[in-house]
Amino acid sequence: MSTLIVPPHVPSVADDSEQLHKAFEGWGTNEHLIISILAHRNAGQRRAIRHAYAETYGKDLLKDLDKELSSDFERLVLLWTLDPPERDAVLTDEATKKWTKSNQVLVEIACTRPSKGLILVREAYHSRFKRSLEEDVAYHTTGDFRKLLLPLVSSYRYEGDEVNLRLAKSEAKILHEKIKGKHYSDDDVIRIVATRSKAQVNATLNEYKNEFGSDIIKDLEHDDDNEFLPILKATFECLVYPENYFEKVLREAINKRGTDEGALTRIVATRAEVDLKIVKDLYHKRNSVPLHRAIVKDTHGDYEKMLVALIGEDDA
Amino acid sequence: MAVADEFGVLTKAFTGLGVDEKSLISILGKWHPEHKQSFRKTTRDIFVEDERQFERWDDRHVQKLQQEFLRFKDAVVLWTMHPWERDARLLREAVYKRPNYGILVETACTRSSEELLGARRAYHSLFEHSIEEDIAFHIHGFEKKLLVGLVSAYRYEGPKYSEEEAKSEAKILKNVIKDGAKKLHEEEEIVRILTTRSKLHLKAVFKHYKETSGNYLDEDLGDQLILKQTVQCLCKPETYFTEVLDVSLKGIGHDFAKEALTRVIVTRADVDLKLIKEEYHQLSGVTLSHKIEEIANGNFKDFMLTLIARGDQEN
Description:
The complex is a heterodimer. By secondary structure, chain A is an all-alpha fold. Chain A is about 70% helix and about 0% strand. In chain A, α1 (about 15-25) runs antiparallel to α2 (about 30-40), α1 packs across α3 (about 45-55) and α9 packs antiparallel against α10. Helices cover about 70% and strands about 5% of the residues of chain B. Chain B has a two-stranded antiparallel ribbon. In chain B, a hairpin with a 3-residue loop joins β1 (about 45-50) and β2 (about 55). In chain B, α5 packs across α7 (about 115-125), α5 (about 85-95) packs parallel to α8 (about 130-140) and α14 crosses α15. Chain B is elongated and about 75 Å long. Classes of the chains: A mainly alpha, B mainly alpha. The interface of A and B includes residues 130, 158 and 196 of A.
């Protein structure tokens, strides 16, 4: 569920576009105005504003934002303003070109988006970068990571609820065997996690718990030295418990010494219109403090204001 | 027509691709019992002498005949089908009914990115699974990695590619092939390049490979048929389809070879059949239409010839 608050009577697209243009005029920028408009418009409205802005002023709203704003606030506004598939394309491009073994962004995007959503990301990636996402992922990642990440970003999972219990039992057994033997990047493990439907993976994890008494996520936590394990664990989490995964990333981003603004920005911008409300509630439950309070404590200025607006806690 | 000649016509009507419905009607319809008996006694490969003194239809021939009666119907159904459903069914059959990697490679590599995506969608609807999960489950080893990758690709189709990278990837392939490539890491590079790069990029790789090694990439991969087919389908599909047609029309091999004729003509009729026709003519010395006249019969033959002639009407 979305945390985005859009006013019941929204100004016309032309008005919004004009106000934004005014916000850039003269010395300095009226960040408050930018937040009050953009943080309260949905994807369709933002798209229309960008279009109107380009038609009226002959310029790209995003480029003007880039010119006028800076650092964390700018990144949040830019990411937020983009259309979701384009946004994901930008994020996957960054994650690929600056790939490290601990980077989970590719897994996050490949596994938490619906099947059609991932296809749209790949389409947007073609348009923007003139290459395919999978060729870049294949080129920039190596070894076991490539073995997992390539099929993850190429998947087009069946999205029905049908589940084959017999298969779930037998694949739970395979997973258990491989995990016990520490063959984390085994062909069958990758096959199951990269091709089965989310419903099927969910059923498989339930059978795993029934048969072996433990949560597969817990079983994947035992090997601290193994660099591949966190990625595999994140894959299961994203497929089957995405809101929990997002809560965890937010918690870690905020608790970190300083703050991981990159992760905080990414989660808020990509989930505000999807399921941030659920993530917010989970956060409150787990940490005894509401998300917006934690954000206010850890961030400041316009960046803080924009985050608070997107999670639906400003009084606009 | 003399009865002896009619025997010849009728035999032809029962053999080859499809059946000659008109001849069957006009000849069989008017024959007296003695003519039929005479026919049965003299065509030893269709009728066998039973120990109880009568000429019996050879069972295998009846089965073959049944297939030939169905050939026209199958062509019509395939032609009329939505291409997404058609390709989803082709993929399914290739995985389940008779593991035929050639058809998997062909379908995955000769369609546009959007067409392949459509086939994957249709596969969800028809079979309640994704094509990649079914391939990964049923096929093993090196072929699995290649095939899952080919079927999952959503290749960039624009004009841009890196000449530098194409050159370096041609070099990588040259080294892998020279080593007689059984090392896993290097196999991975082949799979990466073939399953993710755009077709334009791959054509550049193909070109650089020829320039630096003097050979054609697909020929050098000849030992691994599936790799050779992949390269051909991605870089020069007309050549691939011409060879498939040639084998099919020579009647070599199993039934799949015969079905290939329908499949190639139906799936390429509005795509590149003209180019395929030209290459076939160069390869075999006869036109495709001429060859089909020779070996096909009746409605099936007429349907194939009509499909082949489609492009020509626009000239």
